[in-house]
Amino acid sequence: MKKLIKKKSSGDKSLENNIKQYAKKNVNLLPKKYLTRNKRRFYILLGILLIAAVITLAVLEYYNTLAEIKDLEKQNTLIQKELTIRNEEVSNIKLLYALKEGVDEKVVIIKQIQNAHASATSVSRYIENNLPDGVVYLNLSFDSSNGVQISGRTTNKEEIPDFLHKIREIDRFSSVVISTISKVEQQSVTGTELGNAPTMETFEYYEFAFECTIGGEEDDTE
């Protein structure tokens, strides 16, 4: 009896071992075609999901990039407006400087005219007070090259050097030279009174001009 019991127990152990070995094996009762088809569907579905995920990421990236571009465009528009405002301010500042320069130039011109007028008045007064006998003072004119022309007339040519010496005494002039001397003959009719026969008489005189250069110190010429 003990031997039978031992045999049964050893048989049970071998049966259990066989069951465990079968359990470890991958027993599949479905056909192979069905398994292959399911695997193919699984991979296709997985590929579709991956493609959809990639497309979704691409779309999201596109819209994100589009939003960034719009933000950059807005910033660019603001910057352009700011630059336009700054350019207008710079233009206004340049215009103000140009106007200021124009005003400064006009002020300088006005001062020059005032100085020239004062000088002309002073020189003219001096000439009138120091005219030699027989000399007629005609004109005093200024030119753009810092020069003055004095013109006159005399019946005696010898009076011209004396008048030139008087003009050279004016400290306002750095140099005084004779520019022209011309002899003028003029005829006139005389003897028409009391029934006398008219006669022609010829008068001679000299017209002259001095060229003066302003370069000395201003003085109160009298």
Description:
This protein has 222 residues and is of the alpha+beta class. The chain has a domain at 84-190 and 199-222: 2-Layer Sandwich (Gyrase A, domain 2). It has helices at 2-24, 32-129, 159-168; strands at residues 135-142, 147-154, 173-190, 199-214. Strands 1-2-4-3 form a 4-stranded antiparallel sheet, with helices on one face. 6% of the residues are buried.
Summarize the structure.
The chain has 222 residues and is an alpha+beta fold. 59% of the residues lie in helices and 23% in strands.
Helix content: 55-70%
Assess the beta-strand content as a share of residues: 15-25%
- Compressed to H and E, one letter per element, the order equals HHEEHEE
CATH top level assignment of the domain at 84-190 and 199-222: Alpha Beta
What are the key terms here?
about 220 residues; alpha+beta; Gyrase A, domain 2; 3 helices; disordered N terminus
